[in-house]
């Protein structure tokens, strides 16, 4: 009797795992096809309307570039100069000094000839107190506004302060240490102007700046990261943005716009309550709340992703920092489903409730738990000599081959369409590295997700540690919270 029940449970579990994997692979295939269509459509639209038309047009909307800064004294000057040099007719740069303990603010004051000014500040969304406002006495830096505020212990609080102080109807949320392409604003604003429906946010791929050549805040040559961990992350970013986000764009079901680079409709952000300083995944949480607001008001909307990389950021180079970052991301995902649980399978929220949340619930939130349970199960049946080796080997080989295929396809698409790397050798290096990803990189991601869920379950306090930056081919390092 016991053996019959055990066999039934074993057969049921194996069948369930097979169905789950098949469903996940079908989604990946569908996203890959939709991604290709979306990329071709985006490139075709860009050919029709050139960027110079936007530069010259008096109807081009203004944009506020908001960049929080905390202890960024080492590179703050070069980064702010890079933001001020963006190619766009109407924009301002809002730097939010979030209670830095180093010389970040003083360097800004000295370099850009800043003086304290009276400012008509209206706090529409909550944030810590803004103590002072600075503008430049030099007309060359008239686009720069610097806020000095009490530390809010999160980027979200600083962005909220920047939104409150911003002048224009759209704002770009970025990090002060990110390197942006000069035409970033021109490309991100296009969907807002072209789409007949109201666009509430646009995003674009991020890429690892590790090992890239940088001069005066500008990427002069894109290189594959030299170190192993950043190289894995480069591969993951390309796959996620090019195959994932672009596929979701095609059906207007983008689940998230990265906190490193996103252009937003300020009015909808304010009506949605702004960023949540208590969220571990404030970027996805913000997008979810914006979508909820639009659905609850029964307003049509769209979120766009464009396929071109416009932002480079230095990714974690040590396993300690990387693990801490991914634990926080996992906690953020779990936190979002706790806060917005009524959205799941709720037709009131349309694609958000019937497509985005179900997919993220089954294939993002539950995936690490199911995989971890599967590992425990396989260990159990191996120890008890219950494993069907033929079935197990076929399943594992299929999963391994499929993951390599999807990753390699992403790398090849990226190079064929955009040619960011100067040589195909670098692309093949990434493709070959995909052979090792399931054995080296993926277990770290899996364990960090499990740890994040556990920390969220027990309510463990998160420590916002420092991330030791290597610098962009420079000898100096900088500190940044992660």
Automatic annotation (TrEMBL):
The chain crosses the membrane at residues 17-39, 352-379, 391-413. The keyword Transferase applies. Pfam families: Glyco_tranf_2_3 (PF13641). Keywords: Glycosyltransferase, Membrane, Transferase, Transmembrane, Transmembrane helix. Gene3D superfamilies: Spore Coat Polysaccharide Biosynthesis Protein SpsA, Chain A. GO terms for molecular function: glycosyltransferase activity. The keyword Glycosyltransferase applies. PANTHER family: POLY-BETA-1,6-N-ACETYL-D-GLUCOSAMINE SYNTHASE (PTHR43630). Belongs to the glycosyltransferase 2 family. This is Glycosyltransferase family 2 protein. It comes from Chitinophaga oryzae.
């Amino acid at each position: 009797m016991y053996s019959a029940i055990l066999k039934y449970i074993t057969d049921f579990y194996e069948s369930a795992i097979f169905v789950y994997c098949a469903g996940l692979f079908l989604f990946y295939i569908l996203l890959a096809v939709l991604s290709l269509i979306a990329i071709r459509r985006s490139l075709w639209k860009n050919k029709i309307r050139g960027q110079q038309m936007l530069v010259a047009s008096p109807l081009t909307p203004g944009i506020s570039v908001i960049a929080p800064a905390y202890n960024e004294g080492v590179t703050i000057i070069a980064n702010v100069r890079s933001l001020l040099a963006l190619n766009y007719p109407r924009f301002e740069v809002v730097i939010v000094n979030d209670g830095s303990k180093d010389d970040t603010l003083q360097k800004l004051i000295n370099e850009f000839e800043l003086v304290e000014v009276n400012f008509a500040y209206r706090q529409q969304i909550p944030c810590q107190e803004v103590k002072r406002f600075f503008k430049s006495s030099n007309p060359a830096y008239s686009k720069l506004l610097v806020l000095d505020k009490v530390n809010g212990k999160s980027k979200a609080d600083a962005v909220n302060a920047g939104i409150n102080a911003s002048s224009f109807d759209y704002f770009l949320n970025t990090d002060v240490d990110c390197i942006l392409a000069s035409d970033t604003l021109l490309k991100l604003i296009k969907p807002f102007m072209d789409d007949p429906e109201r666009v509430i946010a646009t995003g674009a791929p991020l890429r690892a700046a590790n090992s890239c050549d940088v001069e005066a805040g500008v990427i002069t040559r894109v290189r594959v990261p030299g170190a192993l961990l950043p190289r894995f992350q480069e591969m993951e970013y390309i796959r996620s943005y090019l195959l994932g986000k672009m596929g979701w764009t095609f059906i207007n079901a983008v689940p998230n716009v990265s906190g490193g680079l996103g252009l937003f409709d300020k009015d909808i952000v304010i009506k949605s309550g702004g960023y949540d300083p208590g969220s571990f995944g404030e970027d996805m949480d913000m997008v979810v709340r914006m979508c909820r607001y639009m659905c609850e008001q029964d307003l049509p909307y769209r979120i766009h992703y464009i396929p071109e990389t416009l932002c480079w950021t230095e990714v974690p180079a040590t396993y300690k920092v990387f693990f801490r970052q991914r634990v926080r991301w996992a906690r953020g995902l779990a936190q979002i489903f706790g806060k917005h649980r009524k959205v799941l399978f709720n037709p009131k929220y349309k694609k958000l409730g019937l497509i985005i949340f179900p997919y993220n619930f089954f294939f993002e939130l539950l995936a690490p738990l199911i995989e971890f349970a599967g590992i425990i199960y396989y260990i159990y049946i191996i120890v008890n000599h219950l494993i069907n080796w033929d079935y197990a080997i076929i399943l594992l080989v299929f999963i391994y081959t499929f993951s390599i295929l999807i990753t390699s396809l992403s790398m090849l698409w990226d190079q064929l369409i955009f040619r960011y790397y100067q040589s195909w050798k670098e692309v093949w290096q990434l493709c070959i590295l995909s052979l090792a990803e399931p054995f080296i990189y993926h277990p770290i991601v899996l364990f960090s997700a499990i740890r994040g869920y556990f920390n969220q379950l027990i309510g463990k306090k998160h420590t916002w540690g420092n991330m030791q930056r290597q610098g962009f081919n420079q000898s100096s390092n900088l500190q940044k919270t992660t």
